[in-house]
């Protein structure tokens, strides 16, 4: 990527420097989980899903597919620009899901230049850096792996990583091949997996303003000079990975707003489609990776603990750190808001105030109607407790009265449609059909929150 850093979050953007490093165990897990995309062109169902990916992406971007977005279309297009170029720090760009009162309190603390007792607690910042760098590194490594089988565009991946394509009977550059824009072709990505603004027959121009009030548009962002994604492979979406990772972290820290925060994560990913920067499959891949990585962090998986990450200590008990950070953050938010967090959480005049609207929007982002690729999985409920038992921590850390077994059962009972392009029966694949909005609603009822 070229140009300025817009995420307002150095921890995620710094993951770019890891792209040329040897694949870690967590990278390899991400590659294996995301790899079904590389074999889609080998089956009729896969080819149909690839076609739907292009059609749905273009329809959403151009506004011909009408989604129940939280703003009317014109307003959501403006939000997509803000999400692309936000410079707010420390998850403040995602905090709107906390509701109008808590979001105002959070932003005030995140932008506090005095860094006094009412600033965002250091433990929150460290958890943010640790989780976002973990998932961001996996996401960025995946971009080059799926584009041309390299670590950075030119350096070949390890033999173990290369074997993933062989085992999957897949090939790099699935989008470039499918959409007649292979790596290095005119107006394509030189590495592979050209983006929608390079493959779609037309892209709707969206104009807006940056943080300083200067006019910007999505062409300046996608093609440059504002950002320039022309040689940045598409799959999976790094912004979506960040959006879901950060939104999940805030949901865990402020569980009273869990459903609204996962809705904000869904919006952040969907806005990448609206702006023309990513396909629906990119967004689904980024979301699945974020959920998978966060669950393994919360499970204190040894492969994820003790990492050396800029801006954070080598965390060895991530779950306990989240619980401690929740208490520290609550004190700050209560001071800013002037009431207990529970009371402030109910004060909401933001676009997230309507539960029915939140659920309707979240639901359309679950599969994007890309069709069934794995028929066997589509015909059954997949047992989360057997395939991915650590997934339950996504609920138990927020709703501690639940056992892990209860949480996994909730995730199984509420899971969305199966058989999508990632849902191949693997432990990673089941994360692609987890419905955290519905699951959190059930968990809230059972825990009496």
Count of runs of 4 or more consecutive helical residues: 21
CA gyration radius, whole angstroms: 20 Å
Global geometry: globular
How many domains make up the coordinates? 1
E-strand count: 2
Task: Outline the low-pLDDT stretches.
Answer: 1-20
Structural class, by secondary structure, is: mainly alpha
Largest sheet: 2 strands, antiparallel
State the helicity in percent bands: 40-55%
> Strands of the biggest beta sheet: in what spatial order?
1-2
Structure commentary:
The protein is mostly helical. The chain has one domain (10-369). The chain is 51% helix and 1% strand. It contains 21 helices and 2 strands. The protein has a two-stranded antiparallel sheet. Strand 1 and strand 2 form a beta hairpin.
Quickly describe the structure.
By secondary structure, the protein is mostly helical. The protein has helices spanning 10-13, 25-34, 44-62, 73-85, 100-110, 122-148, 159-168, 174-178, 196-199, 218-222, 238-253, 258-274, 280-298, 318-337, 341-345, 355-364, 375-378, 384-387, 393-396, 404-414, 436-447; strands at 207-209, 215-217.
């Amino acid at each position: 990527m070229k140009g300025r850093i817009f995420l307002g979050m150095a921890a995620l953007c710094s993951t770019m420097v890891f792209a040329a490093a040897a694949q870690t165990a967590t990278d390899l897990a991400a590659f294996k989980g995301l790899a079904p995309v590389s074999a889609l062109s080998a089956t009729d169902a896969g080819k149909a899903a690839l076609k739907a990916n292009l059609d749905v992406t273009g329809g959403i971007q151009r506004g011909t597919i009408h989604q129940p977005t939280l703003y009317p279309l014109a307003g959501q297009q403006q939000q997509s620009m803000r999400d692309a170029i936000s410079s707010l720090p420390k998850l403040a760009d995602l905090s709107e899901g906390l509701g109008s009162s808590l979001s105002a309190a959070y932003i005030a603390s995140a932008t506090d230049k005095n860094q006094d007792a009412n600033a965002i607690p250091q433990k929150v910042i460290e958890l943010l850096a640790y989780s976002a760098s973990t998932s961001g590194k996996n996401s960025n490594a995946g971009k080059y792996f799926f584009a041309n089988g390299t670590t950075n565009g030119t350096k070949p991946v390890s033999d173990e990583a290369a074997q993933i394509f062989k085992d999957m009977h897949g090939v790099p550059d699935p989008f470039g091949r499918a959409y007649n824009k292979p790596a290095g072709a005119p107006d394509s990505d030189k590495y592979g997996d050209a983006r929608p603004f390079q493959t779609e027959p037309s892209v709707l121009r969206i104009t807006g303003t940056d943080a300083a009030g200067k006019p910007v548009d999505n062409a300046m962002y996608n093609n440059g000079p504002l950002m320039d994604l022309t040689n940045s492979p598409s799959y999976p979406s790094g912004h979506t990975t960040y959006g879901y990772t950060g939104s999940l972290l805030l949901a865990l820290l402020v569980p009273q707003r869990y459903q609204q925060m996962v809705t904000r994560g869904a919006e952040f990913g969907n806005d990448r489609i609206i702006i023309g920067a990513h396909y629906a499959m990119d967004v689904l891949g980024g979301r699945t990776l974020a959920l998978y990585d966060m669950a393994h962090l919360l499970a204190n998986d040894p492969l994820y603990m003790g990492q050396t990450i800029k801006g954070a200590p080598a965390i060895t008990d991530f779950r306990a750190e989240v619980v401690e950070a929740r208490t520290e953050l609550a004190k700050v938010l209560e001071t800013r808001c002037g009431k207990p967090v529970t009371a402030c959480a109910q004060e909401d005049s933001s676009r997230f105030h309507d539960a029915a609207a939140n659920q309707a929007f979240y639901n359309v982002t679950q599969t994007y109607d890309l069709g069934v690729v794995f028929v066997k999985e589509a015909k059954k409920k997949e047992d989360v407790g057997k395939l991915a038992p650590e997934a339950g921590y996504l609920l138990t850390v927020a709703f501690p009265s639940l056992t892990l077994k209860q949480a996994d059962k909730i995730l199984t009972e509420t899971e969305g449609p199966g058989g999508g392009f990632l849902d191949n029966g693997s432990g990673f694949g089941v994360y692609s059909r987890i419905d955290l909005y519905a699951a959190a609603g059930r968990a809230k009822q059972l825990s009496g929150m």
